[in-house]
Write a structure and sequence with these properties.
single chain, 260 residues, alpha/beta, eight-stranded mixed β-sheet, two-stranded antiparallel sheet, 7 helices, 25% strand, globular
């Protein structure tokens, strides 16, 4: 490949499903990136591709790291956007996972590199994960909404077409670019309480992966994340119980929600 995109593996994937999350504006409570990291931890994955971020990141904001290798050799590790593949076998699709920091610059150019990657991998579906803050009750199930270009998939996921108009992030830009190229796309967003400062929001990450299972037909081991979500619930419940001002706000929020 020429330009910022490098594909390392010559062996083709089997109709992969590409799942991507970006740290930053589209990742409230670190929910989307936590969901993707959970996938990276549970599958045996190989490095598939990379988008060089020289043109897209401000390295004074997201700095490269220095590490020591071979005993005394110093090496600079750049915060490039890496993509990893898991060949799952059988007749189903393979899994391709991407994780990175939201680009600071040249989003149109980045979107072209991303579409080039999708074409090179021959992905059958691209799932973009995100999370946003809202006035929701912390003890209620996390709601996952979003958009998909597949009407049947939208019905299966019970997605309501979003009515939001306003500023967007790289997830919105990539979704638009993929739809313009007639590439099957699903954008899944978890809504999390704006008044809960605890991160990562494991409950939201778990909700995203449940929605991803329904969207992709793949099955994941969610045991570890379920335990993290249970601990998260306990921590947030204790936080609300010991903060009179926060408890009063939650009571008022419940009153407004349940009387609508």
């Amino acid at each position: 490949m020429s330009g910022p995109l490098t594909v390392y593996e010559a062996e083709s994937l089997q109709q992969p499903i590409l799942v991507v999350a970006y740290a930053g504006w589209s990742d409230a409570g670190d929910a989307a990136t936590t969901a993707v990291r959970s996938l990276l931890e549970q599958f045996q994955m190989s490095r598939y591709a990379c988008i060089d971020t020289e043109e897209y990141l401000d390295f004074t904001v997201v700095r490269p790291h220095v590490r020591i290798r071979d005993g005394d050799q110093r090496e600079v590790v750049w915060p490039n956007h890496e993509f990893f593949a898991a060949r799952l076998g059988g007749t189903g699709p393979d899994l391709l996972v991407g994780l990175g920091v939201e680009p600071h610059l040249r989003w149109k150019s980045y979107a072209r590199s991303f579409v080039e990657l999708v074409r090179a991998a021959d992905a059958r579906l691209v799932v973009l994960l995100g999370a946003y803050l809202g006035e929701v009750i912390y003890s209620q199930p996390i709601q996952v909404g979003g958009y998909t270009s597949d009407a049947e998939l939208a019905e299966r996921l019970e997605l309501v077409r979003p009515s939001y108009e306003g500023p967007t992030g790289i997830v919105g830009v990539l979704g638009d670019a993929l739809r313009s190229e007639k590439i099957e796309t699903a954008s899944l967003w978890a809504q999390i309480p704006h008044y809960v400062p605890t991160t990562p929001n494991a409950r939201a990450a778990l909700a995203l992966l449940h929605a991803l299972q329904r969207a992709s037909g793949l099955r994941f081991d969610l045991g570890s994340l379920e335990r993290e979500a249970a601990s998260f619930d306990e921590e947030v419940s204790q936080l609300v119980a010991t903060d009179p001002q926060l408890a009063a706000y939650v009571r008022e929020l419940k009153r407004r929600v349940f009387t609508q």
